[in-house]
Amino acid sequence: MPLAAITHAKAWIGELFSQSGGSHDAAHTLRVYRTAMKIADTEKACDRDIVALGALLHDADDTKLFGTVGNANARAFMEKEGLSQEMQDRICNVINGVSFSHNRGKVPETLEGKIVQDADRLDAIGAIGIARAFAFGGEHGRALEDTIAHFHEKLLRISGEMQTAYGRHEAAKRHEMMVRFLEAYRKETEE
Ligand code: ADP
Ligand code: NI
Q1: Terminus of the chain with fewer CB atoms < 10 Å: N or C?
Q2: Tens digit of each residue's pLDDT (9 = 90 or more) over 12-42
Q3: For residues 57 and 97, is the Cβ–Cβ distance under 8 A?
Q4: Cα of 153 from ligand 1 centre, angstroms
Q5: Nearest atom within ligand 1 for CA of residue 123
Q6: How far apart are CA 85 and CA 139, in angstroms?
Q7: What is the pLDDT of residues 96-130, one digit of tens each?
Q8: pTM (2 decimals)?
Q9: Separation of alpha carbons 101 and 103, rounded Å
Q10: What CATH number matches the domain at 2-190, 1.10.3210.50, 3.40.33.10, 3.30.1330.40, 3.40.50.150?
């Protein structure tokens, strides 16, 4: 029996991200949710409700998009849904362990945190990762070459930092896709 809060969260993020661009929109959150549930299917020990709500709320207080502090958006939503303090704390713990930029080198302590972090990272690599990186570059007025640099600084390192077996397997395929793209890009643009 899925929690009503999960259904409600899917609708709520649509409103929350209505002003956000292609690199960080509601569709990103929904993909992270779907991928996280696929990983959860392979990690029997996890709490699926925590994974689902952690994924759906993981960017609700992203500092690049919102000026909130202390998971204020996520907490307000969960409070309205009547979730217990204990459940809210567990979900916030998952959310706060996800961000790549804020957690360089840190591994989430809980299985649910590892699952949501892997799902978020998978969305930054492969074909979807390429699309999001160039969307981000466009939103920030960057030259194409600056986004190519971002692949070397960050995106090509992600597949080596996955925490679940499903994540590692899927990341290897997506990594390969980026390597092929970068090679084709280099050939097409070299002088
Ligand atoms: P997180 O929210 O997990 O910390 P980011 O906000 O850094 O992740 O990244 C969100 C998306 O924007 C990712 O797809 C990432 O590749 C892209 N992105 C972030 N920084 C850059 C950049 N300098 N150039 C191109 N894409 C970027
Ligand atoms: Ni995200």
Answers
A1: C
A2: 999 999 988 778 899 999 999 999 999 999 9
A3: no
A4: 11
A5: 14
A6: 37
A7: 999 766 666 679 999 999 999 999 999 999 999 99
A8: 0.95
A9: 6
A10: 1.10.3210.50
